[in-house]
Amino acid sequence: MEILVCVKRVPDTSENEIEINGDGNDIERDDLVYSVNEWDNYAVEEAIQIVDKVGGSVTVVTVGDDESEEVLRREMAMGANNGLLLTDDGFEGADGKGIATILKAAVEKGNYDLILTGAQADEGAAQVGGMLAAMLDYPYASLVNLIEPGDGKLKVGREIEGGNQEMNEIELPCVLSIQTGINEPRYVGIRGIRKVASVEIPELSASDLGLDAAAVGADAAKVKRVDYFVPDMGEGAEMLEGSTEEIIEKLIEYLKAKGGLK
Amino acid sequence: MEPVLISPASFKLFGFIPTVIFSVLLPLLGVGLFTYIMAKRVAPLVKANPDFRFDRPKERILNVLKIWLGQWRHPRYMMAGVLHIIIFFGFLILSVRSTELVIKGISEGFVMPGLGGTLGDIYYFFKDYAATAVFFAVIIAAVRRGIFRPDRYHYPESYGHDHTNEAVFVCLVIATLMVSESLYEAALVAAEVQAGHDATFLAPGTLAWFFKNMLLDNSTKSLQAYHIASYYVHDLTFFFFLCFLPMGKHFHVITSLFNVFFMRLDRGNVRPVRYGVSDEELDDLETFGVKKFSDFTWKDILDFYTCADCGRCSDQCPANTVKRPLSPRFISIKGRDYAFSHFPLMGNFVAQEPLIGEGGIYSEDEIWSCTTCGACEQECPIGIEYINKIVDLRRGMVDEGNVPQSLQKPLSSLEKRGNPYGKMEKKRAEWTKELENCEVKVLDKKTSAETLYFVDSISSFDERMQNVARATATIMCAVGEDFGILGKEEKDSGNEVKRFGEEMLYQSLKAHNSEAIKNSGVKKIVTADPHAYNALKNEYSEMPPVEHISQVIVKNVSSGRLKLKGVSEEEANKVYTYHDPCYLGRHNSLYDEPRAAIDAIPGIRRVEMLKSRDRSFCCSGGGLMLFYEPEEEERMGVVRVKHAQKAGANVIVTACPFCLVNMEDAIKVAGLEGKMEAIDLGELIAAHIDS
Fold it and tell me: Residue B676 and residue B651: Cα distance in Å, rounded?
């Protein structure tokens, strides 16, 4: 099975202390460290496991600049066979629909049976997977937490609100957005990355993809971020402050006061 | 003078079969078979990875004299140890006699060269006592092992079959050797006495003496029968035993001498990924660590062969104590069983399946459960190693991407931020802000100092442990050290990164720190974190001298530069005990300094826990171990806190931030809040500085 996994480079929220920038429309990006969007790791691991079972190859693709190459290498160190970097100055500022359009063009250049995305990105809106499926006119399943490969189709499990599980049959080719917990992604160390350090990663620009950059970039974006802030504290909300011990003490006090603890 | 009995070399069975045939055939067959078995046993060692163990011969010979010949570690388990010492020396003494006997069967007048005169008289006198002592020792050992069955030898079902029968059987084989040897001689002497000859002197109270007295009434004919029969029973048992040794846990009778000679000489270090491959060449290696059996080094396999299943390692192992799925003894036993089944005595070598995972002999959790505390290696009477194997198995898993999810986050943070918590580099020196009356320089190419205080990650970032860092700095200020820290240029020392098998990440941390330390131009390093102390001292190369803060304290107390005030009224009612951190004690032999530092506080009351110094009980490990979620029935820290309680202490002093984390958690888990407290040595001293 030929599988394409769409991945994204995101600021690593667990390793950063996120602050809003002076203009108030983005986060302070100096001193940030980046990594592969967590959900995408699960998607790549799943793709590798499917290929281990039924054969084929895994290609990882991302839309971004030169720095995005590192996430492709990391996924290739995990075991993805090929990387593909979609890069063009004109892509900058693309909204979700723009990204989906770029990815669609890349899908059409290949011959993929299955396209996986993460269910969402750390700083994203969980929209690209669905849009990509619609644009390709492929069937789509979201929040997938189980995949059983079959002949010409897949059995996919989905997580339903409230902890219920649903099983579906879906025809190939299709797009799936992958939920965390579907597997246990393997560890990638420095050694693994060094092993793929010199592998050539092909780059495709807007013209390579047959796209008009103006139709997908900032100018074409119909969704624009206008503000970014930490919400004001609402009625009834209180941030406990102090050392861990003090916080715990206060919390217990409150719980006792409100009858939550006896 | 005619001999009173016909010797085995001249005797004719049923009057016409010369028994000398057996005297020749038995040794030939025995030695031939033994050689064949040994050749098969050596095969896996030849196929294994290299291990450099031929250096420093003087130290190795000293180890052999002390640990092998001197049985140095045996009395740590008094009963079993003394029994073993008796059997061991009995064997050494009787090996001469046994060899002599074998040759006597062919040439009856044979006497071991050198034993013809007075030396011989002394030898023969003592060897009868040796045989008697060994006889009683193996009987006691068999009863102890077969009937009383100490817990230490218990076999959990998951680990394979019990070795009690083998142990008891071997005791009986040895007893047979002792009885037959004595009977052979007793029959002859009894016949001499009957014939009125000058009978050979038999030491009173020995087995031979006892048998002689018992046999005095027997006819010459039956004495002759005893004489010949016991000779061949001895001969047969001797060669049977020789060939039986390499079949199981008694292989140590042969291998222990070599294993002790080749045992590790240095502690606190981990062996290289591959001997003969430098750090720079690591990238060229196809594979890392131990994945299949032949990835072990020959010393590892010699360790497996040598394990006597005595269970001391596992008895001391904290992971085993709290019922984690790890028992070091079975790392060896399973390894040995694997070697025997995959390199069989008959037929071809069996293809090697991976060691870990489905169908493998080790489980992932088993290998991650080890805290590398070193209690097992400290205890093993014959120099078997575990840490190197555990680390190499982890290297293999890391290389395959097989790392528990709980460890992946901290590893990736170490890679990106140089600390396992994912905190920002620029905040590494923030703990200094709350420091009063003590200035801490941040060193770089421009700002230098005499001494570097290497803080390491936990004391830099953990809110509670920052207090340890501040106490350390306060002491350094009080003694007037010209010192500084590396600030954001310091990364985790990587002691645990290396021990968790992530060698390349460790290499990059080491390279970064080494460069930063070099740039700072310091002449000495001080740290309060034993894990950093160990890495800098034993793993990094070309470092300035490294000291632990306890050494600084003791030095300055004795020089008078550090004056400590006595205990307060409240403290006077407390009883302190010192918990030895593994990486300070066992791995670096710093036992006395921290104790001396505590005792330097006038009026302090300190008691020892039963398990202390080189038998200290690990708190459950530091560094990445804090992130690992093991299966266990109880926390190691809780066990340790109970040790302190039993010793009558109510304050646990330790000298390692990880120990402190674990102790403080354990005190809460054990429900001992208010009854027990934990404090870092530095904190204790800083609070008593008399300014």
Answer: 6
The encoded tokens of residue B267 equal 């502690």
Residue spans of alpha helices (H) in B144-277: 164-194, 207-215, 220-244, 252-261
Question: Which residues 6+ apart lie within 8 Å of A52 measured at CB?
Answer: none
CA-based nearest residue in chain B for residue A36: B412
* Segment B536-592, tens digit of pLDDT: 999 999 999 999 999 999 999 999 999 999 999 999 999 999 999 999 999 999 999
Q: Which residues pair with B441 in a beta bridge?
A: B484
Give burial (CB, 10 Å; 0-12/13-18/19+) of B21.
exposed
User: What DSSP line would sit under B465-488, residue for residue?
Assistant: THHHHHHHHHHHHHTT--EEE-GG
Tens of pLDDT, residues B391-429? 999 999 999 999 999 999 999 999 999 999 999 999 999
The answer to whether the Cβ–Cβ distance between A14 and B422 falls below 8 Å is yes
- Dump pLDDT digits (tens) for B38-53: 999 999 999 999 999 9
Helices and strands in chain B, H and E counts: 27, 11
**Given the DSSP bridges, would you call strands A114-118 and A174-178 parallel, antiparallel or unpaired?**
parallel
Q: How are beta strands A153-160 and A140-149 bridged, if at all?
A: antiparallel
Nearest to B402 among A79, A186, A244 (CB): A186
CA distance B660 to B465: 8
**Residue whose tokens read 């018992």:** B214
Sheet containing B441-442: order of strands: B441-442, B483-485, B451-454, B524-527, B546-548
Is residue B680 within 8 A of residue B654, CB to CB? The reply is yes
Radius of gyration for chain A, computed over Cα atoms and rounded to the nearest angstrom = 21
CB atoms within 10 A of CB A39: 26
Please give the Cα distance from B326 to B685 (Å, whole number): 37
Q: Residue B2's pLDDT band (boundaries 50, 70, 90)?
A: low
Please answer yes or no on whether B401 and A186 come within 8 Å at the CB atom: yes
Global confidence as pTM: 0.93
- C-alpha distances (whole Å) from B310 to each of B163, B304, B560 are 10, 13, 49
Which amino acid, one-letter code, is at A252?
A: I
A188: chain B residues, CB-CB within 8 Å: 401
Q: Residues B548, B533: contact at Cβ < 8 Å?
A: yes
Does B221 contact chain A (CB < 8 Å)? no
**What percent of chain A is modeled with pLDDT above 70?**
98
Q: How far apart are CA A148 and CA A184, in angstroms?
A: 16
> Which residues of chain A register pLDDT less than 70?
14-16, 262
pLDDT value for A15: 65
B412 contact A CB<8A = yes
